[in-house]
Structure prediction request, 649 residues.
Amino acid sequence: MTSFDYILQQVINAVSLGSLYALVAVGLSIVFGVLRLTNFAHGDVMMVGAFTTVVLNGLGLPFVPALVCGVAGAAFAGFLIERIAYRPIRSAPDVTRLLTSLAVTYILENLGILLFTSSPRNFPLPDVLNGAWQLAGGAITFTSINILTIALTLVSLVLLGWFITRTTVGLGMRAAAEDMAAAQLVGLDVNRLVIIAFLVASAYAGLAGVLWAAQAGVVQPQMGFTPLLKAFVAAIIGGFGSIAGALVGGYMLGALEIFIVAFMPDSVTPYRDAIVFALLIAFLLFRPGGLLKPNREIKL
Amino acid sequence: MSRPARIPVTVAAALLLAAVVAFGAPHVMGDYYVRILLLMGLNAILVLSLSLSNGFTGVFSLGHVGFIGAGAYLSGILSLTVQQKASLLPHLPAALNWFSLPFLPATLAAGLFTGLLAVVVGYPLMRLSGYFVSVATMGFLIIVNVVLINASDFTRGARTFTGVPLETSLPWVLGWLAVTLIVLARLIYSPFGRALKAVRDDTIAASAVGIDVLRARLIAFSIGAFFAGVGGSLYAHYLGSFSPVTFYFAMTMNLIAMLVLGGMGSLSGALVGVIGVTILSELLRSVERGFSIGDLKVPALFGASQIVLGFLFILIMIFRPKGIMGEREFTFGLTRQSAPNRQTEGQDP
Prediction:
């Protein structure tokens, strides 16, 4: 069974899944980098993006404009969340902010249930994206969505790289991430930077939400939960707050999950998530800075 | 009467009240209200056990429901009859399938099991603090959930675990609530309790004055987990049937909402939170079902109650981050000062 084709197939799957995790983790990392806030609501912003796309598509808008509107809708949701819930408690203790983001999750998820009921509905894909490709006489299969996911991840990450290294706003965001008080002292408008960080991160969430829903074929109000937890693990493995770390963590986690399923005995496979979260705990204990950051000492 | 004994006096008064309510309530109230009272008591046990680590020790655990679930399943497995075990759990190991425990021993076993589990889990995790410990304990909750779903020889997997005898009644719940309150009150308003608060307020200073931070946290975490297991067992015998999803994030969110709204630093706060949130959710639930005012029909709005609860939670976080009670306790005039950290320093036995 473990022929070269089989391995190659698993690598393709791993890269595709890893791209999704990386997309979500990058958004989490941007917010964490600037605000030191674990934004649990990020998964629900994914849901907002996916539902906006589905609803607009259902109203007759073609898929690509609908996707763009979905991403914009997610960004707007992120903006609202920051203004209403996070700004008033920006300087509160860590746990307060963690709890607030849990409350936001709770609200958004139930809002989704209120508007769309909790039953899953189909995610409409245009025919162009519905195809599957086969190589090596059917031994290797990948869908158009796989390719689209990987391609959009790459494009958006190049854009992000340009944005944070070449533009004034991006540089300001990095300064704020380094030291918010100092950034304020040298005259940066911190509120504006935080809003931009939320807009960018939530746009990423929206894109990831649409791609996730496209791969799963369905949308439902609780859809953001699993990717959020996985991206969270990815971000911590890579080094929370670092965008490169989120990428490395995302692809590593994608590979780990796919390879557990592909190469481990069947009795282990159902425990995949337990293994992943045990890894999370191990990282928190032994290398809380993640792979890409030096092991900063934790205050006991 | 010496001053430190006053907290137990308050508790004893509450106990007496509890006994009167437990045996009197079913005679004067309808079934619906008795059920709400029972749910409040049950949630109070769970929230109080959560407050020990999250409120008093500063270890903000998101994994508490993992212990509740483990306790519920263990107690459920132990109290099924032998015939039920044969039909529902045919692959149960031989050591577990030939007996059936009554309610009380099963509950104690569940508590001891989760307490020990907390020692094992807490030993590495209690080294972490703040946000890291929340994330790591959340990982623990997810691992418990995965195990409950996949260890189908013991738990029927994701299917409903059913057949647990319905033995949880108001006297049982209020009795266990009284035990929980007494143990926690004795613990928190003792030298050890002050050590816990010192660890919470300033870890470095606490270890500088010779408090073993890891040990203090571990003890608090394990005692909390013991009562979580007990509460889980009561919950199992209240519901009769449940599944892994019963003991997951929704329940976590609910318990944390109660704890935080009431005030994390006080036992009364936990109770106030439980009573407030329970009443509020019951009221909102009736709104949720839909109602009509005259000709105006309001349709059923599923999820509306949770949305209101979520907004309330955010408002509390913004305007009263310490919760309704903060660190104050109800003492009913039995002490001149609110009980924590005033005057009594150095006078305790």
